[in-house]
Amino acid sequence: MENNWSIEQTKRLFAYAYEAAESGRGLSWAFMKTAEEARRSVNSVRNYYYSQLKMFELVPSLAEDLGIQLKGAQRDRFELFNESEIVNLVEEILIAKGKGISVRATISKLCCGDSKLGLRLQNKYRSMVSNHRDRVTKIMNDLNAKGIVYFNPYTKLLVTEREDGDNHKKLTEYIASLGADEVENVFAVMKKLFA
Hints:
The chain has helices spanning 7-23, 27-38, 42-58, 60-66, 83-98, 103-111, 115-131, 133-145, 167-176, 180-194; strands spanning 150-152, 157-159. By secondary structure, it is mostly helical. The longest helix is centred in the first third of the chain and has 17 residues, at 7-23.
């Protein structure tokens, strides 16, 4: 299927978006209706819609010239987490996991039934664990310093006591918190030291 969109198809898509806003339906209705008519995937329609919306936001006169009404064509405003929200989220989940409560159950409690918020929290937590090991490790170190029991997502171990004197355990957890490239560097340095 050709990826080019005609002006008529674009106008139809935005007419459906307008109709969705007027009738209280979500944009997904407009995407599905357009996908069905144009024989395209819903994801393709969604991506095209947002790329065109961005262009119309930059050049509003273009939408006017095409007779496209942008009412209801607002993209959801992206809300960023502040640092304390991130720390609190990661702490809550690590502490709950330390008590045997799943990530899903913890997030469900935190979002009070708001599924959209729940998805945001889940995505942020998973992103932190996967992409920000240094920040998660700092949070774990702070919990450890306070003597709080928590679950280490890298070693998959429960940390039950303050670890001031257990250097072997500290080294193990430190290495487990590193990325693959960093681990290789640590072992290369250790080989040189003990050779």
